[in-house]
Amino acid sequence: MGDTEDTNNNKGYEHMLEEQPLSENEENGKDELTSLSKKEEEEEERRKQLVDLQYGVDDTPPWYTTAVLGLQHFLLMFSGVLAIPLILAGPLCVHSSEALTRLISTIFFVSGLVTLLQCTFGVRLPIVQGGTFSFLLPTFALLDVRGPCIPYNPVNATVVEEREAEEFWHSRMTEIQGVIILASFVQMLLGCTGAIGLLLRFIGPLTIAPTIGLIGLTLFDVAKVHMSTNWAIGFLTFGLITVFSQLLNKVQIPLPGGKRFPIFMLFPIIISIIIVWVLCAILTACNIFTDDPNAYGYAARTDIKNDALVESPWFIFPYPGQWGVPTVTVAGFLGMVAGVMASVIESIGDYYACARLSGSPPPPPHAVNRGIFMEGVGCLLAGLWGTGNGTTSYSENIGAIGLTKVGSRVVVQACAVVLMLVGLFGKLNALFATIPEPIVGGVLAVTFSMVCAVGFSNLQFVDLNSSRNLFILGISLFLGLTVPNYIKETEGAIDTRSEQLNQILTVLLSTNMFVGGAVGMILDNAISGTDEERGIVKWIRAAGDDPSDKRNRYSPIYHLPYVMKWLEEWRWTKRIPISPTFRGFRLRRRKKSSRNNNGDL
Q1: What span, in angstroms and rounded, lies between the C-alpha atoms of 476 and 468?
Q2: In the structure, how many helices (H) and strands (E) does the chain have?
Q3: How far apart are CA 528 and CA 287, in angstroms?
Q4: CA distance 495 to 512
Q5: What are phi and psi of 587, to 5 degrees?
Q6: CA atoms of 246 and 4, how far apart (whole Å)
Q7: Which residue has the higher pLDDT, 23 or 360?
Q8: Per-residue b or e along 376-413, where b marks 16 or more CB atoms closer than 10 Å to that residue's CB
């Protein structure tokens, strides 16, 4: 009897990782979370949240409504996606309009593919995926190390010079592809292991604010370069976007059936581009703009890239490895990891915002883990196809959900199909490539301003009356701006007598958001301060991450399609961080037997 009692008392007390118990009943083997009453309470809460929505996450609007709403999401994001290849074309040394057209086609196609994967198998919220500005700074730093573009004039270039120019920009692109592919595995690892939850313990508003804020501050120079080609056209675009989005945002046009549509609120960028583009076409036809390529204002002409529209094929089929075999450098990889971390932080905030606006419970840990993992898959696909960038969630499309009261997952899946179709039509992409440069500059000025403002908006959660917080913020911004500037302007600023180490440190310290974010994180965790002073308490509360809300973990909205039956039957899936049945991990200590407790040896 004594041996039997000792054996029974030691069962289940092994030193192992087990799922976190959610209640005393669950510890005793009683699973109350799948009871009918629990499901009824969950559905009742969800119905309350859906009162103000026309369509919830799991709802399917009529096909014609779905098509129109999907096109609207595309129009909201297309300028952000289009801006990425237009910005990268110069540093990558893209030598022709045809090459730029294929690059634009690739990023639209991959954005659609990743959006479809994220909505269906990732976080399963109506979130659109596309290129991210977070990857631009490490990309610029890596390309700066490689040196400037080779001289090339497309007007009188020979066949040999054209081939050399093509090989040169392909080599720059393949290096970017390689580091993005490698960095994507870091993002996938953060998601599939659940490590993102541990990492976020050290990241707060004082880390996020300088990290994202410095992205916008640093990219202002890119917008200036584009706008300076014709300041009048650039500021006209900037001004129209401002008027439509801020002054006329409440103006609604009447529609058949007595409905009204807030056109200026939803499409300020699209409308502004069309108006200024048409104006530039008229001024070009009237020869108001100079036809001298070296004269000021020439870039505002609309006939500069007509050859791309004429010579581009009707259909383009992007495929993996189209630019060549990706290559990898350690320096580029570490710099791109900084871009991955900034993208991860931004996306997690987008998940919570999207859940609130779409009438869903806050995303549980398994949904966040799966979303980050799927974004890593998206970056992997972007690297394989060669977009020159990664993927992240688009905040502007999340805002559209709050305006339209349509949070349907199917609508965003329709948007994904539109993105992929646009990526396959070469003429349409070539048309986008003909947008005059100063118009692009005006759009970028507004976009980068919003990126900067979104980053600094995280300061609303911290105590700005605290000298500790002001010190951390000031030092982070100062070093984030000055150190990269010094590295770029000073030749041989870093000399460790190791060429590889020099390259690594040069790329990292030339990336503003890495320097500012790293300094902010180190100081925020090293200098003592309460969670309330640091802004952690308000930040978590604003995100809606209430661990006491069991709906966060078991809402059917976040269940994976087709496989839930098996996932619920297999107990081992409860320990998989990206599984809907995941309940978290905790370290359970070995307990002593009752015989040892009673002193019976």
Answers
A1: 12
A2: 27, 6
A3: 65
A4: 20
A5: -90, 115
A6: 76
A7: 360
A8: bbbbbbbbbbbbbbbbbbbbbbbbbbbebebbbbbbbb
Counting every residue written for the chain, the total comes to 601
On whether the CB atoms of residues 132 and 88 are closer than 8 A, the answer is: no
User: Poorest-confidence range of 10-14, 78-82, 198-202, 352-356?
Assistant: 10-14
**Based on the number of CB atoms within 10 Å of its own CB, is 86 exposed (0-12), middle (13-18) or buried (19 or more)?**
buried
Q: What's the distance, CA 245 to chain centroid?
A: 23
Task: Give dist(CA 82, CA 69) in Å, integer.
Answer: 20
**Hey, CA dihedral for 416, 418, 419, 423, is it positive or negative?**
positive
Q: Identify the CA nearest to 325 among candidates 398, 280, 412, 386.
A: 386
Q: Which residues contact 518 (CB under 8 A, 6 or more apart)?
A: none
CB atoms within 10 A of CB 155: 5
More confident site: 295 or 3: 295
Enumerate residues 6+ apart whose C-beta is below 8 A from 79: 269, 270, 273, 443, 447
Phi and psi for 201 in degrees, rounded to 5? -65, -25
Question: What CA–CA distance (Å, rounded) separates 311 from 430?
Answer: 9
> With the C-alpha atoms ordered 525, 529, 534, 538, is the resulting torsion angle positive or negative?
positive
pTM: 0.70
C-beta neighbour count of 585 within 10 angstroms: 16
Question: What is the DSSP code string of 443-506?
Answer: HHHHHHHHHHHHHHGGGGGS-TT-HHHHHHHHHHHHHHHHHHHHHHHSTT----S-HHHHHHHH
Q: How far apart are CA 224 and CA 93, in angstroms?
A: 19
Two structure tokens written together for 510:
């030339």
CB 363 within 8 A of CB 371: yes
Residue 432 three-state SS:
helix
Q: Is 60 exceeded by the pLDDT of residue 17?
A: no
Assign 484 to helix, strand or coil: helix
pLDDT at 467: 93
pLDDT digits (tens, 9 = 90+) for 437-462: 898 888 878 877 877 887 788 888 89
What is d(CA 127, CA 271) in angstroms, rounded to the nearest whole number? 24
